[in-house]
From TrEMBL:
Name the record gives this protein: G-protein coupled receptors family 1 profile domain-containing protein
Protein's membrane topology: Multi-pass membrane protein
InterPro entries: GPCR_Rhodpsn, GPCR_Rhodpsn_7TM, Orphan_GPCR1
Record's subcellular location: Cell membrane
One Pfam family it belongs to: 7tm_1
Organism the protein comes from: Perca flavescens (American yellow perch)
Origin: domain of life: Eukaryota
Family, per entry: Belongs to the G-protein coupled receptor 1 family.
Recorded GO CC terms: plasma membrane
Record Gene3D superfamilies: Rhodopsin 7-helix transmembrane proteins (1.20.1070.10)
Amino acid sequence: MSDTAIIYLSCLAIVDTFYLVWVILIDLTLTFWLLQPFWHSHPWCGILGFLQYGSLYSSSWIVVVFTIERYLVLRSTAAKQHFYQPWVTKVTCVAIVLVSHVVSVPLGWINTVTPVNLTVDGENMRLPRCHYRDHTYSTVIVWITTFLSGGVPIVLVIIFNYLIGYHLCNASNLFTKEERRVMHGRSTRGMLRRTILLLGTVSVAFVVLSLPRFVTYCTLRTKYNHENFNRNDYNIPINVAGDLANMLQNLNSTTNFLLYCMVSRRFRRELVQVVTCKAKARKLSSVITHTTMKVFSVVDHKASPSREPVTVVLTNLKLIAE
């Protein structure tokens, strides 16, 4: 199994979980439970946006870097020796998360808190509300953020997954069917077809789940970013489209980790066993070890050297005369 793939996907699962906590557990849930959630006041109005976009940036770019690394490892032996080291992967993941949150700092100022007249249980109340600023600064930041968290990652994932599939096809065509059978013990044509199909599925799912939010978010924060626009009026089509796009983005964060795990044939086989209740009882350590995914991995098989030198003594040798 690939240690680097485990690290990348574990980090992806963590940042996606944080994104779901900030967006769903705190933002959406408390909106329906509480009349006055805490982020409608300073400084939480800006902090919550910073945390949400920091997690979103981290998730998108971990996927991008992971895909690029898999391509480089397939293309170059030198890249394989450099990237196929757990400490390099750990440093890369930490750097992505830190840079993502640093880049998200300007997003703390695209929101502002102002008092708004609301009708609650038939009574008029004036409560503070956190909403977008109607300024050029907010519009520029929103466009930059949307491209960095959605547009650019979508394009890069499509390009490098295509290059990975193209490289695998070319590498397979270097050998005849009989040679591949000798090397691998079986025909790899079916495995190659399934791998390319899964790569395409990953790319399409990433685009389908991320692209709608990219479009609707840019539209809402540019054309409709003014005080007279009611974001809660669902008679307006863009409000419905915006919420559906947010649902797809949340679904992407929920299934991201599972989607990349599905590339592993062992993971798929064990998932089917669990769903059909045919899985055998195992120890926890065994489950963690054998269910871990092998995603686009290139595994080094090295013979472990013996700890002590072995001395061979030949005795009872006879000279055979010609």
